[in-house]
Amino acid sequence: MKRFLMFVTLILTLSVTSCISSISSIAGSAVKSSKVGNKMLIHSSPRVGDYAVYKGSSGQVKMTMKITGKSGGLYVVTSDTGIDISGQYISTLVLELHLDRGGNVKKAYVVESSGKTALQIAGKNDEEYVGVTSLSASEIKEMDVPSKVTVPAGTFRVTPLTFKSKKKGQDVRIVNLVNRGVKFGYVAAYTYNYSDGKYDKVQAMELVEQGNKR
Questions:
Q1: Is 137 exposed, middle or buried (0-12, 13-18, 19+ CB in 10 A)?
Q2: Can you tell me the mean pLDDT for 139-153?
Q3: SS3 readout for the chain
Q4: pTM of the full predicted structure?
Q5: Which residue segment(s) compose the domain that 179 sits in?
Q6: CATH number, domain containing residue 10
Q7: To the nearest 10°, the Cα dihedral for 80, 81, 82, 86?
Q8: Residue 161 has pLDDT above 50, yes or no
């Protein structure tokens, strides 16, 4: 999820500063030079065809995750992130992740028109390493994190999971609101900046659709 949010930010920036036709190649080059997060959530009783669609708070950034197959006992998940402009969807980054039942990423690829390129998976000492933790009661209160949230896909009871990182000298906290009954577990993800003694919510991705399509 950390890698997902980092690239959502990248795509938002590129949509303003670059020609649309160049975004995909820039995003692909960027992910090749870094590492993919080692873990992501996977829901109960996963089946080929299960999918979830998320949109950013701007309404333009869209991400679809789907189980497209099984290979060697692993679930093959395709993550397609792009921009929806005036009803036209432009794909900017496609990843193929091979997960075990626990959501551990065993193989990862970036998918481009020229083919697939294998990616490195983050280890414990890497910035991209995903170490999920729970929020304390005081943090939940301070950040005003809800126990129930309404998103375009419906209303869900949620549990907050988080990790902390540094961004441009600021403390950044990404809070994932999780419901294990939802496809891929994620209901929403909120990014908070901590400055001047308080947290400010600056970005959100929310579940807009889920289901199963073969």
A1: exposed
A2: 89
A3: CHHHHHHHHHHHHHHHHCCHHHHHHHHHHHHHCCEECCECCCCCCCCCCEEEEEEECCCCEEEEEEEEEEECCEEEEEEEEEEEECCEEEEEEEEEEEECCCCEEEEEEEEECCEEEECEECCCCCCCCCCCEECCHHHHHHHCCCCEEEECCEEEECEEEEEEEEECCEEEEEEEEECCCCCCCEEEEEEEEEECCEEEEEEEEEEEEEEECC
A4: 0.79
A5: 2-212
A6: 2.40.360
A7: 80
A8: yes
| pLDDT of the residue at 132 | 65
Short-list 178, 183, 180, CA closest to 147: 178
pLDDT over 70, % of the chain: 77
- Banded model confidence at residue 123, pLDDT cuts 50, 70, 90: confident
Give the pLDDT mean for 193-208: 78
Q: pLDDT category, 208, cuts 50, 70, 90? A: very high
**At which residue do the structure tokens 């089946």 appear?**
47
Q: How many domains does the chain divide into? A: 1
Residues in Cβ contact with 59 at an 8 Å cutoff, skipping those fewer than 6 apart:
84
Q: Is 9 exposed, middle or buried (0-12, 13-18, 19+ CB in 10 A)?
A: middle
- Tokens for 191, please give them: 């990014």
In three-state secondary structure terms, 27 is helix
Average pLDDT value over all residues in the chain: 78
